[in-house]
Amino acid sequence: MFVSILIGSAVLIAVLVSSALFLFAHLTGRVRRSTALGVAVVALATGAALAGAGAMEEPVLGPMAVPFGVFLMLAAGINGFVAFQAPRLSR
């Protein structure tokens, strides 16, 4: 169980940092909105897959799959909403 918590934490941190970096790059004008939204959608789909696998009792991350998946979906949704609502920056 401890190994599944460590693996889940590493996956969660990697995806959240990636999504947050794309959001920051979008807000500073370095990447387009579509790229930031695409990363948010991939993170949202990953969270849904994790939560679904945990709900079906697949041995993906053990008992921590559902909380990690829900947290990932929530964070990706917030990142996507902020990227969508951010003003368009002209280059």
Which secondary structure elements does this structure contain, and how are they paired or packed?
Layout: H1 2-27, H2 33-55, H3 65-85
Q: What report would you give on this structure?
A:
By secondary structure, the protein is mainly α. Helix content is 77%, strand content 0%. It contains 3 helices and no strands. The longest helix is centred in the N-terminal third of the chain and has 26 residues.
Summarize the structure.
α1 (2-27) runs parallel beside α3 (65-85) and α2 (33-55) packs antiparallel against α3. The protein is mainly alpha-helical and 91 residues long.
Structural class: mainly alpha
Total beta strands: 0
The largest pleated sheet is described as: none
Unreliable sequence segments: none
User: N- to C-terminal separation?
Assistant: 49 Å
Report the total helices.
3
Question: Which term fits the overall shape?
Answer: elongated
Radius of gyration: 14 Å
Question: What keywords describe this structure?
Answer:
mainly alpha
